[in-house]
Design a protein that fits this description.
Structural class: alpha/beta
Number of helices: 9
CATH architecture of the largest domain: 3-Layer(aba) Sandwich
Distance between the termini: 33 Å
CATH superfamily of the largest domain: NAD(P)-binding Rossmann-like Domain
Number of strands: 12
Bound molecules: NADPH dihydro-nicotinamide-adenine-dinucleotide phosphate
CATH topology of the largest domain: Rossmann fold
CATH class of the largest domain: Alpha Beta
Number of domains: 2
């Protein structure tokens, strides 16, 4: 009997992923049927993005796993109708893209590039920026994406502090955890990067109290998820100058509503959730690898801990 793989994502992704997944599964010698529609009780694996609108997994009685195309799984991790393993996307292409975006945004702040890009005021003020060795950058979240970004920043000689739920050891990065660790991490964060997942424990991680711990004028870069920041607290901190500028890629409501104060704010850069994306060529390999592991009875890679939400 063939292994039935339901591709449940945006329709325009199907022509991109279909040949890549077919090739990977064929090369593995698997007897499979890959389609965008099946009778639910015939499906073995769902390749999933929340954009498909699939929410009720209860009719999928033969399902072995859901394989997310997204790294962030906040839209499905708490779904009670899902009782089989959920794997999230850990993709080299996504990691590379995020690293490039974060390093770019950090360098923009570090070098004060906006000063010369957006203001041509005829003032000759030759203030050279400091070296990276004199700059403190903090990355909240040291998972697949946070660790890659922290390593790249450390390789550029920034003073990098990272914070995660559990203890880590990353060369060149001062790794902290716990509530006390967060306070210490934030106290030196001239540039703060948020790469935490959206879970009940991380909601409003940056609030009035934690924003107050930052050095005055700190810059915030959020490619993680919108709910990591208490928006009212950030707007207040921007007003007092406690936060000097914020670059926000993700928001509680996306697309960011036209009337939202972030759009017109002189100290906010809005980017439309483009920091990085799953890259089909590398992501299809990850999906195929997990289907093959499932068929061989091996544990799935990149499993989500549903009790933690990531
Ligand atoms: P991971 O699950 O690999 O890493 C999450 C990190 O956050 C881990 O280091 C984890 O700690 C830490 N963490 C989780 N909860 C807590 C907590 N309560 N306190 C302290 N630390 C915590 O995720 P990724 O690195 O792959 O992705 C991170 C997020 O990036 C995604 O969830 C998604 O929201 C976002 N993203 C954004 C994109 C964009 O284009 N803007 C694209 C892709 C992803 P520990 O290591 O100890 O478990």
């Amino acid at each position: 009997m063939p292994v039935n793989v339901l591709f449940s994502a945006r329709p325009e992704q199907w022509p991109v992923y279909e040949p890549l997944l077919s090739e990977g599964l064929t090369q593995a010698g698997l007897d499979f049927h890959l389609a965008t529609e099946f009778e639910p009780d015939q499906v073995d694996y769902v390749v999933y993005s929340p954009a498909s609108g699939l929410l009720d997994f209860s009719p999928f009685t033969r399902l072995k796993a859901v394989l997310s195309l997204w790294a962030g799984v906040e839209k499905i991790a708490g779904n009670d109708s899902l009782t089989v393993p959920l794997a999230r996307m850990v993709d080299d292409g996504l990691m590379q893209g995020m690293t490039e975006w974060v390093v770019g945004q950090v360098l923009r702040y570090h070098l004060g590039m906006d000063r010369y890009i957006t203001v041509q005021d005829g003032v000759w003020a030759p203030d050279a920026p400091p070296l990276a060795t004199q700059r403190h950058v903090c990355v909240l979240g040291l998972g697949a994406l946070g660790e890659a970004a922290a390593r790249a920043l450390a390789a550029l000689n920034f003073n990098v502090t990272g914070w995660s739920r559990t203890a880590k050891d990353i060369p060149g990065v001062t790794c902290l955890h716990s509530a006390e660790g967060l306070r210490a991490a934030l106290s030196s964060a001239e540039i703060l990067v948020l790469l935490l997942p959206d879970t009940p424990a991380t909601e409003n991680a940056m609030n009035a109290d934690t924003l107050a711990l930052l050095p005055k004028g700190a810059r915030i870069i959020n490619p993680g998820r919108g709910p990591l920041i208490d928006d009212d607290a950030l707007l207040a901190a921007l007003k007092t100058g406690q936060v000097g500028h914020a670059t926000l890629d993700v928001f509680r409501v996306e697309p960011l509503p036209a009337e939202h104060p972030y759009w017109a704010h002189s100290k906010v850069t809005v980017t439309p959730h483009i920091a990085s994306e799953t890259r089909p060529v590398t992501a299809a390999q990850v999906i195929c690898q997990n289907i093959i592991r499932g068929e061989e009875g091996k544990p799935f890679l990149h499993l989500v801990d549903r009790s933690l939400g990531y």
